[in-house]
Structures are given as C-alpha cells and as structure tokens.
Amino acid sequence: MVRPLFLHGGQSRLMSLVEAKSNAVVGLLVSWLFTYFCLPWFGLEPSPLDATWITACYFVLSLGRSYVLRRVFNRLVR
C-alpha cells in the first residue's frame, strides 16, 4: 500500500519528522556558532566545550517551550 505524501491537506508524519529533525539540527548549529563566535563581542569568551553546554541548555529549554505551546494550541483547536 502506498501512503499519500499529504494527509488531509497537511504533512505526512514522516515529513513532519524530517522537518522537526532538520529544524533541531539547524537550530543547534546556529546556536553553537553564535555562542562561540558572537559572545566574545559581549566580553564573554566560551571554550568550544562551554559553547556546547550553553547550546545544549538552550536546546532543552526551546524543546520544552515548543512542546508546551504545541499542546496549548492543539487544545485550543479542539
């Protein structure tokens, strides 16, 4: 059985997963680059390991925020 690319006018589950993973990877890369290269403009000079930990903290916070907002908006639609 062939699955449709779009279900009910929206994304398939597979494409939603691909989009979410792509968004996470790009977000982590941009965050790490900013932390490592731009924080020195503000007088902070993180090591590569420090930049990784800072990025990980912001990633976890962002993931939690996104999840909570998605659940709130899903509940509003019902």
Written description of the protein model:
The protein is mainly alpha-helical and 78 residues long. The chain has one domain. Helices cover 72% and strands 5% of the residues. The chain contains 2 helices and 2 strands; from the N terminus they run E-E-H-H. The protein has a two-stranded antiparallel ribbon. Helix 1 packs antiparallel against helix 2. The mean pLDDT is 86.
Element-level helix/strand string: EEHH
Low-confidence stretches: none
User: What order do the strands of the largest sheet run in, or round the barrel if closed?
Assistant: 1-2
Shape: elongated
Task: Tell me briefly what this model is.
It is built from two helices and two strands, in the order ββαα. By secondary structure, it is mainly α.
Write the layout of secondary structure elements.
Elements: E1 6-7, E2 10-11, H1 13-38, H2 48-77
Antiparallel strand pairs: 1-2
Helix pairs in contact: 1-2
Features:
78 residues, mainly alpha, two-stranded antiparallel sheet, 2 helices, 5% strand, elongated
